[in-house]
Hints:
The protein has 190 residues and is mainly α. The chain has helices at 3-23, 27-38, 44-68, 70-76, 81-94, 97-102, 108-118, 123-159, 164-186. Helix content is 82%, strand content 0%.
Amino acid sequence: xxxxxxxxxxxxxxxxxxxxxxxxxxxxxxxxxxxxxxxxxxxxxxxxxxxxxxxxxxxxxxxxxxxxxxxxxxxxxxxxxxxxxxxxxxxxxxxxxxxxxxxxxxxxxxxxxxxxxxxxxxxxxxxxxxxxxxxxxxxxxxxxxxxxxxxxxxxxxxxxxxxxxxxxxxxxxxxxxxxxxxxxxxxxxx
Length: 190
């Protein structure tokens, strides 16, 4: 497959791929869409809309299926009982804010709809708050990746003009500082 056919396929099938990847609530798809939008291969508005719809349907469907197939999901999630119990505790403590914040925490964004589906929490109320939560998640991650991509493209165009030995020296100093910082933070204090 050559580059031109890949670009054509991306322009035709990229939105469908984005929808199904967002259906699972994945960061990677939204970030990749933001990067491709910055490169001019996809439209940012359409990408955000498709990602939003996929994310809403995916998490709402997960909660609905957990509610309707409670016995099967309970059996499948035996290893994750502690996480589900924590979800119930966090729902009581944080309320609707958990729905918003769970979108941004990897691993929790799947457990929260499942926990809500397995609990007595109202599905209508979850879907009502899930819609703006999906919007905030999609727009924030999508726009950050879009603008960060533009910034990185500008940075790379400036780096092209710098001599290679200077880049290697800057990279070496940066990595040395990171290494020294990690060593200093990981020393045991007596």
